[in-house]
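re: that complex we talked abt at group meeting.

here r the seqs, copy pasted straight from the sheet so there may be weird spacing, ignore it
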Amino acid sequence: MNRFVLWRTGATAVLLAVLSALVFVLQQISPGDPARAYVGGNASPAAVAAAHHRLGLDQPWLQRYGRYLWHALHGDLGISLRTHRPVTTDLGQFLPATAELVLFSFVLALLLALLFALSGALRWPGTGVYRGLLLLAGTAPAFLLGLGGIVLFYGHLHWLPEAGRGVDTSSPTGFVLVDSLLHADLTGFVAGLRHLVLPGLALAIAPAISIGRILRAGLERAYRSDYVRTARSKGIREITVLWRHIVRNSLDATLSMAGLQLGFMFAGVVIVEDVFTWPGIGYYLAQSIPQSDFPAIAGVTLLLGGVYIVVNAVVDVLQAVADPRLTV
Amino acid sequence: MSIIRIRRRWRIGTMVLAMALGAAACSGSGSGDAGAGSKPPTDGVLTMGLLGDIGQPPDPDIYYANNGTAIMINVYEGLVQYQNNTDQVKIAPRLATSWTVSRDNSVYTFHLRHGVTFHDGTPFTSAAIEPSFQRRVAVKGGAAYMVAGVKSVQTPDPYTAVITLDKPNSAFLSYLASPFGPKMESPTALTKYAGGDHDQKYLSTHDVGTGPYELTSAVSGTKYVLTQYKGYWGPKSPITTVNLPVYSSAAPLQLALDNGDVSAVVAALPSSSLSHFASDPNVRNYFLPTLQSSLLTLNPSKSFFASKQARLAFLRSVDQQKLVSQVLGKRSSVATTLYAKGMIPGDADKQDITYDPSVMAGYAKNLPSGTTMTIGYANGNPNAQNIAEILVAQMQADGIKATAQGYDTATVFSWPQQPTKGPDAFVDGNNGPDGGDPYMWGHVFWDASGGIDYFACDVPQVDAELNQAVKTGDTALYVKAAEQYSAGGCYMNLSYNKDWIVAQKWLTGVPQSQNLGANELNFSLLGIAK
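got the structure back, here u go
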């Protein structure tokens, strides 16, 4: 098992290095000029050339890449050409918002998936409408879902806010819901929750369907299995049969899918954050790309790539723990 | 427990969850509670929606982008500014009450306003000018050129400053009046917070200015907050706090304006929203003059427009009237001059391109079958995209395989160094000079050393004339340079663009708070109707 974990850790480091090299190559071949972002749109060629020199953009890209990797290993991801701040500072500011949104969406996705799977597998009457609506919403891309939600719930119904997190900054954790509870600020908690609902749903629905489908298939398999029939015949209460024998035995593939979807959510959060002006790293990335802010783009890419790889590695390890045959 | 009871419990659980979410949705006092329109604020809070983040730190010597000028002109002040509420390019007093210029445009003497203090309490005197200029040069921002030619700043008394340039420059007052121009910064604060980066870290979240508002919060990508400076020398506005929330796209910003959560939006909504707000009884629409234009630039480095004949034929096929009426609407008018509106007295810089599509149609007939061309526009500018698509349709009607292509800002700004990598033509939906002097237009758009001569369509004679004209301010020479450049067929001034400001009805003083150089409002001159 230790060898398996070591192997996955090493592979993660190599993947991150490859990812950063890819971003570097993309920057090299893209026509944009990052120095322009630094000095501003109308800057003269002389000012741009001076910025090139100051930023080291006039050096060979391999040399720059080597320096970037060396600094990255020491926790320095460079200076954002747009905000003029260290990228690590920017990521520190924006990451909690993303983490809160993704975790909220993930919990929402699990709840929606559970409802989707149980209602389908157990044939609960009247829930076909719910499943149909979820499937319908799942066919729409996240940005469309987000915009539609804003128009309906903010523009027409005035139920939910249209943008942002409800507060400018949040401390000590950076999670609005947690911080407001820590400060016993119920108003802040409700405001934070209201701001989370629409982007959370936009991000959660597609993963909910993926997870729900897998869980439903597992539930249906388990529901008709011999051991469930045996458990019932022994007179075990139905609720115990459901949770202990049906749901738990359906979770193996569901956990894999949930882990995969969590990784996808970190990747897909870019669009949702941009639609809702959610001040997370996805929004930060969306603002950085048009200006060729390479240090910011590379920093976010490494972070999101790292999260994705780590989540999948953790799922692999957990599966290996559950089924040691996988490590063979 | 039977499966029926499980279902019942589940239903109860889901009902509770739905009620909790519904209660969360309907409670609180978040930004979504307002109805259509809004009542005048009683707490003096104004909310001005920003479309996109300001893009750079709110540092007056770094900032050289777009909507962040709202912060620059309200938090900081320069010696002069452009006069508000007029479509003429006129320099007006700000921290300087009067000035004189030497005959050769190399010595500028300013008499400064008394009773002005910086936000840290330091009195504003002539001693503040040189450190402000020096910092601008030291941080090497895009607008550092404005003070690069300052040879010395003499201070014969605390309220007089004599600025000597290293060579004559008739545009210097325009540099100082520009929203990107040098602002006065507290020398005390500059010394105190200098750090190792000339105060750059400090000024990304604080300010050291004299303006009517202080920058009290700056959360990049989220919101900027300005709070009224109690010691301001000028008129006191009822607006005590200005929130500048950032919206990533126009749709939620428009909805926020509809719902009354945003008090006003300056030059940020697309033309497609014109009719919506024109018929909205809860808001007022203002169309105020600017130095901005929509521009059409042709690329002589690409084969399609390599010949002057092709370029001129294409420009003659552009129906300015149609483009302005179909795409830009009331926020623009047809450009008839080569420089920005009002830069040359009497509109002597007339743009002489007569509309005649038959010339291009005739030229296209002689092109090889399947000839292709691309018309570019900047991503995120729907007006430019619409214009490009109309021009493409026109070219296709002439038998040319034309396409419209969007480009990111960084890509667009890389073309002057590599014009062959650009499209055949580019529609710049909205751009303008840093200030109102014709040199600031000609040098930036027509001179390859200026900054945004997109396709390096450069005429050395024109550059020389512009460089000569800026020494003397000779209007006739500016006109001559413009006509020579226009004759090359690389350029067309499509439209004069206006600041389209949509504001809640209770917001007063909008035209009086705007000037053609700033593209933003001086919030201290706004009022609240009861």
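couple things i noticed - Chain A touches chain B through 72 residues (CB under 8 Å). The radius of gyration of chain A is 24 Å.
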